[in-house]
């Protein structure tokens, strides 16, 4: 065997629905199988369990994996690097087509199992195998999958190295080089450097924030920002509501700790909060104080909000879904006056999240903020740091790993363009050693 094929299935034209296949002789390894959130009404509580895969492919919501029928070989494993829906959300719709195990970190495995259990259209019988960061899974005699610890805006995230007879293919979607994380270990730089010395044929790498200068701030910075906004005020008796990604366990931990310092009871509201936080607690990643409340079902949420109003807003800190203005989410329902919790002049609404840069999200978020302001809310936005690498982090990883070929993924044409410019600064040549792929294309790399 002297060549390796890289199949760009999804996530190469856009943010989301990430899926890549690596062809090694007669064997194929699939990396990620994700959803494109803005095509299915961008809500973490989205219900697609009764929809057919072909319908979702047509909507552009999941990867069009029909290209895989044209590829000779057998899929030996489906590998997922972390638990975000844009990386695991299509598993219930597509995984059953492949007679292969799903390999992922323990927290990711728990989220995948939740998704499979919720699926109503297809029966997914693939084995789901947990593999810890630092571990290796032997797929065949010649092929193994190694998980390398890295940080991102969800716990238990890894880079996946596919080891082949002619060298490794490194899949680096998504990551940040956070040396002072608030949960988990710093990235395994020693292993990445060693891998670079051993020889990396190709690196498939996210390009999401490749256009942003500098390096991504540490999650420690976000923890300080959250604490500063919640505790740094003389108006400590006003109502406060905070919203963030339900999957961002380190951020939620920081908010819960700050609530404790304020003397308020943290109340997690929303089905996705219950799902992500519950899994993190059950697996021992997160220890919750005894006074934390968590409510997922609508009637339970409304009951809790009613009690908060009756007993006093200043005694509680509601932590809610809805930072993107998703229809049906708790914060949108509060802004619309559809819950017992009312926003009064001077109440604070804190967005510990960025706005996802798609026109629909931006419109939803604008409408949400306008409604909150009309009720007198004081808005604190972007109390947040990104989970994605900025340009200098990308530069650092590229120099550390020193792959022969590099392929930007997980982004649109503009993001890929930024990555390619950076790679050219590092000596790569477009079309020769740095490659621009679109969904549905296959690149063969000869060794």
UniProtKB/TrEMBL annotation:
Superkingdom assignment: Archaea
Cofactor annotation remark: Binds 2 Zn(2+) ions per subunit. It is not clear if Zn(2+) or Mg(2+) is physiologically important.
Metallo-beta-lactamase domain boundaries: 16-204
Name used for this protein in its record: Ribonuclease J
Binding site residues for substrate: 384-388
Function text: An RNase that has 5'-3' exonuclease activity. May be involved in RNA degradation.
Binding site for Zn(2+) 2: 86-87, 174, 410
Protein family membership: Belongs to the metallo-beta-lactamase superfamily. RNA-metabolizing metallo-beta-lactamase-like family. Archaeal RNase J subfamily.
Cofactor(s) for this UniProt protein: Zn(2+)
Main location per the UniProt record: cytoplasm
Localization per record: Cytoplasm
Subunit-structure text: Homodimer.
Example of a GO MF term: RNA binding
Catalytic activity, EC: 3.1.-.-
Keyword Cell division: no
């Amino acid at each position: 065997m002297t060549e390796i094929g890289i199949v760009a299935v999804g996530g190469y034209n856009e943010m989301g629905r990430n899926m890549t296949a690596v062809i090694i002789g007669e064997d194929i390894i699939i990396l990620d199988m994700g959803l494109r959130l803005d095509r299915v009404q961008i809500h973490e509580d989205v219900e697609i369990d009764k929809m057919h895969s072909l319908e979702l492919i047509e909507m552009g919501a999941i990867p069009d994996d029909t290209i895989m029928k044209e590829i000779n070989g057998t899929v030996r494993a489906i590998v997922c690097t972390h638990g975000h829906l844009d990386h695991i959300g299509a598993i219930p719709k597509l995984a059953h087509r492949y007679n292969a195990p799903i390999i992922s970190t323990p927290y990711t495995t728990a989220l995948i199992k939740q998704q499979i259990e919720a699926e109503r259209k297809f029966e997914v019988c693939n084995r789901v195998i947990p593999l810890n960061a630092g571990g290796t899974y032997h797929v065949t005699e010649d092929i193994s999958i190694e998980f390398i610890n890295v940080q991102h805006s969800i716990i238990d995230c890894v880079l996946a190295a596919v080891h082949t007879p002619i060298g490794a293919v490194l899949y680096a979607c998504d990551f940040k080089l956070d040396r002072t994380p608030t949960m988990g270990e710093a990235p395994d730089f020693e292993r990445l450097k060693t891998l670079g010395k051993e020889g990396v044929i190709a690196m498939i790498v996210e390009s999401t924030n490749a256009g942003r200068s500098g390096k991504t701030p540490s999650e420690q910075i976000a923890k300080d920002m959250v604490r500063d906004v919640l505790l740094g005020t003389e108006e400590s008796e006003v109502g406060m509501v905070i919203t963030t990604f339900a999957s961002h366990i380190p951020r939620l931990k920081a908010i819960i700790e700050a609530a404790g310092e304020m003397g308020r009871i943290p109340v997690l509201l929303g089905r996705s909060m219950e799902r992500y936080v519950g899994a993190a607690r059950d697996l021992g990643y997160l220890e919750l104080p005894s006074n934390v409340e968590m409510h997922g079902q609508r009637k339970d949420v409304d009951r809790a909000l009613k009690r908060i109003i009756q007993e006093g807003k200043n005694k509680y800190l509601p932590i809610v879904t809805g930072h993107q203005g998703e229809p049906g989410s708790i914060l949108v329902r509060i802004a619309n006056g559809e819950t017992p919790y009312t926003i009064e002049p001077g109440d604070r609404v804190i967005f510990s999240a960025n706005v996802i840069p798609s026109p629909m999200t931006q419109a939803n978020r604008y409408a949400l903020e306008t409604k909150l302001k009309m009720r007198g809310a004081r808005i604190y936005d972007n109390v947040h740091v990104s989970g994605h690498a900025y340009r200098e982090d990308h530069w650092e990883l590229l120099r550390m790993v020193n792959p022969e070929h590099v392929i930007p993924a997980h982004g649109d044409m503009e993001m890929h363009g930024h990555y390619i410019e950076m790679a050219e600064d590092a000596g790569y040549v477009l079309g020769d050693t740095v490659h621009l792929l679109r969904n549905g294309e296959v690149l063969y790399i000869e060794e």
